[in-house]
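Ticket #4471: structure export looks truncated?
Reporter: QA, pipeline team
Priority: medium

Steps to reproduce: submit the single chain below to the structure queue and open the exported record.
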Amino acid sequence: MARVQQSRQTAIGLHLMKSHGEGTDVTATRIHSARPPAGRGRPPRAAAAVGTRTVERALALLGVVTEAPTSLSECARLTALPPSTALRLLRTLEAAGFASRDASGDYAAGPRMVQLGATSLASHELTRTATPALERIVEATGESSYLSVRGVGDTALYLAMVEGTHAVRHTSWVGRAIPMTGLAVGRALTGDVPEADGYVAERDLGEPDVTAIVAPIRSRGGVIGALSVLGPSYRIDDETMHRYGRVVAEESARLSEYFGAPAREDHP
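Actual output as written to the record:
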């Protein structure tokens, strides 16, 4: 049996040598074909180190742009990165919504970053701090008041509310996400607010019989939320709408100061 096995191995060896030509080193051929092409692949530890370094650099840049709008050269200087590297990472962050670039070319926190920050705050400090403001708004207006933040995509997410005191009042939208386009809450959350007023007041397109009065809550990094009053339009004429607007703007200004936003002389 051993001889038969040995004969088979010899026959296989001879066949391989013939197929490669006389003098061919079959063993060497096998070893050569098993080797990966030169220059391809990295040891797992080296690849992990490169990935970790990239993440650290991106986080360092996020730390800079969330503090205040910053130029590319200043981002590179503060993070000790080559400008080309900083630009590449900032473009990646911008594409993902974590950074944004204004008309002057400065980088700031993007909508995704603001959303994450607001969502985090919503679970503790923002909601807790805004609740007394919502209660004061209801006391002053009698209408339902809301706290909202940017949601996923181009939406506004309602986080908290205090119901109005009227028999006919706006019912709870807590947990509801609505498109921001064309709505007062969308303008407030994107910072599109008349500076002289500090609030946006509109007949709501989403609910034609409802008037919305909204003011942004700011931090050092930008808008983190909004306070609003929603009530039936038949009860809110133009004079009342602007009176309520001043109430909402005052409360949002107090919250903005608490969260570190720069003082705005034009606020009520």
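Status: closed, not a bug. The export was complete when the record was re-opened. Leaving a note from the reviewer for reference: The beta strands are 99-101, 107-109, 144-150, 155-162, 177-179, 200-203, 210-219, 222-232.
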